[in-house]
Amino acid sequence: MSRTEEIAEGAGPFTTRLTWRLTDGGTAVWESRRARKRGLLGVRAAGEHEARSRTADSMSVRRLRRLNAVAASAFTVGGGFFAFGAGVAQFGPGDATGAWIYFVGGLCFNTGGYASLLQSVNAPRKVSGTAGLTSQSWRWWSYEPSRIDWLSTFVLLVGTLVFGVDLVSSLLQGLSVQQVDRLVWAPDVVGCVLFLVSGHLALVEVCHGRPRALPGELGWWIVAVNQLGSVLFFVSALAAFTRPATGSLVNVDIADWGTLAGALCFSVAGVLQAFEHP
After folding, report:
1. Cα–Cα distance measured from residue 229 to residue 231, given in angstroms and rounded to the nearest whole number
2. Is residue 278 part of a domain?
3. Do 26 and 74 lie in a common domain?
């Protein structure tokens, strides 16, 4: 199919949806998240009222399914470990057990973040002049900051790595209050901010512009629940600041319960993500 006109939608410099008016009178619609998560392109022939989904090639479909399974499982399990760690911190003996549980959860989040980036890097691409998607050569990395999906998943991965600094530091013994705030609290806050930025970009991608409610879209629910989890993590991080004068947290209950609730959000979103595949 050849095309005669291209209409772009998105926000700022980012394009999240392209509509092609084809010479035969039909249209083809490419959406960023739908293409990289489900490998689908919407095609509507002349005279039809509803678009039909055209699936990418079989290689792309297999890749998307495997990467989606890894990412969904990693965030589901990682969120579970974080929730368990928060429970141990709130009700447990107060030893280093909770820190090790958080550390294992952080490794899961690292895995989920990288798998999400690989989904973007190896997403099937639209082919110029046709209404189809095709796979590219497998890559372990790319640099594509002009793509909102790449930027969102890259910021997410960096956020998980920054959380890793916090989690490793929390395993150290004998830290002063100033060292705790610098090595544990500060990376925690930075990681939360990166999660919030990643989530906002994901909302812009799925909404094709200004974030709004799209209750009929599975992708929107996944992104919205994740963003709620990021907000709760951020509130928890602020409450976990250690006062230099007293050596106590601003509010230990908010810190623990915020982490637990935020972690459960990521687990729920991980379960939902398992259904967002080709």
Report:
1. 5
2. no
3. no
Examine the domain organization and report whether 106 and 242 are in the same domain: yes
What is the DSSP secondary-structure string of 58-114? HHHHHHHHHHHHHHHHHHHHHHHHHHHHHHHHHHS-SSTHHHHHHHHHHHHHHHHHH
In a domain, 32, yes or no: yes
Same domain, 247 and 199: yes
- DSSP per-residue string spanning 214-267: -TT-HHHHHHHHHHHHHHHHHHHHHHTPBPTTT--BS-HHHHHHHHHHHHHHHH
Residue 221 and residue 139 in one domain = yes
Residue type, 65: R
The span from the CA of 215 to the CA of 60, in Å, is 28
How many C-beta atoms surround the C-beta of residue 237 within 10 A?
A: 25
**Complete edge-to-edge strand list for the sheet that includes strand 14-22:** 3-11, 14-22, 27-31, 40-44, 52-55
Strand 52-55 vs strand 3-11: parallel, antiparallel, or unpaired? unpaired
Tell me, yes or no, whether 204 and 242 share the same domain. yes
Express each pLDDT in 204-235 by its tens digit: 999 999 999 999 999 999 999 999 999 999 99
Same domain, 15 and 89: no
Summarize pLDDT for 66-94 with one digit per residue, the tens: 999 999 999 999 999 999 999 988 887 66
Quick check: is 139 in a domain? yes
Does residue 102 share a domain with residue 19?
no
Note if the pTM is more than 0.70: yes
